[in-house]
Design a protein that fits this description.
The chain is of the alpha+beta class and 296 residues long. It has three domains: 95 residues, no CATH class; 101 residues, Tetrahydropterin Synthase, Chain A, CATH 3.30.479.30; 67 residues, no CATH class. It contains ten helices and eight strands. The strands form three sheets. It has a three-stranded antiparallel β-sheet. Strand 2 and strand 3 form a beta hairpin. Bound molecules: 2-acetamido-2-deoxy-beta-D-glucopyranose (2 copies). One 2-acetamido-2-deoxy-beta-D-glucopyranose binds next to helix 4.
């Protein structure tokens, strides 16, 4: 018997089983159901016959934060997960799995990531998640916790790889939110609810740290120079105004001269000051002015 898959459409599972097992499949299913019923009845009889002792095996307890997913003869029991508290299983034909519903914390180990602008950074994060649907977390995925953790790691790497460094440093909040929504979407089919993602630390390579520090220092120095230059400009204007005022009245210069002498005597009282008569200074000034007027 050949199965034609060249047209791109795979045969539906039921069609396939019909092709393989022939038209007797329905009959086989009916037989399986009847067999299951018989086994269930036998199991009940076993429980009743060994009454006081069978209770020890049949009654199970799960904690407030746990649920039990029960499989009877390999099929999920209708009514969803049982618990919290006491639940009942039949010996030999029931199997059950406990699922913890409490929030778990996963510390994503530091990941070396190449950002969009080709800088290698080391990023770590914390993910808080919990099982939201116990049945689905057992039936749909082999190990829901392990899968969620691996996915969290790869999602972190992907997101960081799509962004330039300055965004990673300045927009942690929005990156966390984006990552949470991506993770939540992917893990929904595993019965996992991602509650929170926090980017813990972004570590830069030492060389880059040095370069950034040098850049910041240079920027500060440039600003300081501008401020100093502006100060000089203002001071020179003020000095010019002062000199104009002094130039208007000769007595002002003399007063200023005496004032300077006074300052020196107060501050450096061990320095001996020999006062030069201001008249001599005026004489030199006048001589200079005359020579400028009449150079011959
Ligand atoms: C879990 O998922 C199953 C299948 O999607 C659904 O039937 C069931 O109601 C869900 N249980 C809860 C508690 O949401
Ligand atoms: C000289 O100045 C110092 C402090 O600057 C002061 O202690 C001292 O008394 C002063 N001497 C005189 C003679 O004023």
């Amino acid at each position: 018997m050949s199965v034609d898959v060249t047209n791109g459409q795979r045969p539906h599972v039921e069609d396939y089983s019909k092709q393989v097992f022939g038209s007797g499949t329905e009959q086989v299913m009916e037989e399986a159901k009847t067999c299951g019923k018989i086994l269930t009845v036998l199991s009940w009889m076993l429980v009743i016959l060994t009454m006081p002792f069978s209770l020890l095996v049949c009654f199970k307890v799960v904690q407030e934060y746990e649920r039990a997913v029960i499989f009877r003869l390999g099929r999920l029991l209708s009514g969803g997960a049982k618990g919290p508290g006491i639940f009942f299983i039949l010996p030999c034909i029931d199997a059950y799995a406990r699922v913890d519903l409490r929030t778990r914390t996963y510390d994503i180990p530091p990941q070396e990531v190449l950002t969009k602008d080709s800088v290698t950074v080391s990023v770590d994060a914390v993910v808080y998640y919990r099982v939201s649907n116990a049945t689905v977390s057992i039936a749909n995925v082999e190990n829901a916790h392990h899968s969620t953790r691996l996915l969290a790691q790869t999602t972190l790497r992907n997101i960081m790889g799509q962004r330039p460094l300055h965004e990673i440093l300045s927009e942690r909040e929005s990156i966390s939110k984006h990552m949470k929504s991506l993770l939540d979407e992917a893990t929904e089919s595993w019965g996992i609810n991602v509650e929170r993602v926090e980017i813990k630390d972004v570590r830069l390579p030492v060389q880059l740290q040095r370069a950034m520090a040098a850049e910041a220092e240079a920027a500060r120095e440039a600003r300081a120079k501008v401020i100093a230059a502006e100060g000089e400009q203002k001071a020179s204007r003020a000095l010019r105004e002062a000199s104009e005022v002094i130039g208007d009245s000769p007595a002002a210069l003399q007063l200023r001269y005496l004032q300077t002498l006074n300052t020196i005597s107060a501050e450096k009282n061990s320095t001996i000051v020999f006062p030069l008569p201001i008249d001599m200074v005026t004489y030199f000034l006048q001589a200079k002015q005359n020579s400028q007027k009449d150079p011959f």
